[in-house]
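Repro:
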Amino acid sequence: MGEPYFPWADRYDTGIQLIDNDHRRLFGIVNELHDLIENGGGPEDLKPITDDLILYTQVHFEREEILMDEYRFPHLQAHRKLHHDFVRMIYGIRKVEAESPEKLDLKKMLVFLEGWLRRHVLKADREYIPYLKGDYGRRKSDLTIPVAKASGLSGETPQEQEEVTVSLKVPYAAVQTLRRCANLLRQGGDHAAPLEALTDPVAAMDIEDALEIAKVVLR
């Protein structure tokens, strides 16, 4: 097997194993897109890759933001905006993929993903490293690594399989509605599907907005 299109190198190491593992997986997703293009695939074959991007960036970005908050990184909000803008871009790509796939240019998407990830790892992520104390990843409270399979991701992280207790304040009139929604989500499957659809960022995005957001990867 030859050298991957986007190989990992020592210069990308942060010295934090969980973060580096995440970054390696994201590099792997970029390489999967490259392989898809090389093998003659098109936008109709893109869904597994965008699935992985959405799942893995959400888990990884949450992990990073918890870490930065815990160690009082002073530029957390600016870093969080970088994450938000990237996720919004991926949602835009996903919407175009679903409704106007012929407008996607996979080679432009490849260039965008590689460039963004390279810059983010080498510049933005380097800013928080001096604030860390070096013990992240050795505590039970740390976020877990998504479950990997040979073909990609399992679709769930260990946390998504576990029940958790959530406390929040809502108007008294909404309590019963919230309980009903929570019960449906606990049942999962067809019971939860309508609620999950209501909160799906891709479904909620208008195609015109998606085309504008994702314009740098369009034909």
